[in-house]
Amino acid sequence: YLYALRGNRSPDQGASLVLCSTLLSFAFIPLLLTWWLPALR
User: Fold this and answer.
1) What is the pLDDT of residue 39?
2) pTM over the 0.85 mark
3) Among candidates 3, 32, 34, which has minimal Cα distance to 18?
4) What pLDDT, on the 0 to 100 scale, is given for residue 38?
5) Which of 3, 13, 22, 26 fits 9 for a cystine, CB–CB 3.0-4.6 Å?
6) Of 24, 12, 17, residue with least CA distance to 1
7) Domain locations in the chain?
8) Distance CA 41, CA 7 (A)
9) Residue 6 to residues 21, 24, 37, 41: CA-CA distances in angstroms?
10) What angle do CA 5, 8, 12 make, to 5 degrees?
11) Cα torsion for 9, 28, 32, 30, to the nearest 10°?
12) What separation, in Å, do the N-terminal and C-terminal C-alpha atoms of the chain show?
């Protein structure tokens, strides 16, 4: 999937897309933790 994306677009765009997705996932991890910890208790 990622290789297809890089093939369709320029490498710079693909790199920025990957960077954005990783940043978003890192931003969502604390949100999910704060969501789940009270539910698990």
Assistant:
1) 79
2) no
3) 3
4) 80
5) 13
6) 17
7) 2-40
8) 46
9) 14, 19, 37, 43
10) 75
11) 150
12) 38
**pLDDT tens-place values along the chain, 41 residues long:** 555 555 665 667 777 888 888 988 888 998 888 888 887 77
**C-beta of residue 2 within 8 angstroms of C-beta of residue 18:** yes
The residue behind tokens 């940043």 is 23
Please answer whether residues 14 and 6 qualify as being in contact, where contact means their C-beta atoms are separated by less than 8 angstroms: yes
Instruction: Tally the residues of the chain.
Output: 41
For Cα atoms 31, 18, 21, give the angle at the middle one, nearest 5 degrees: 15
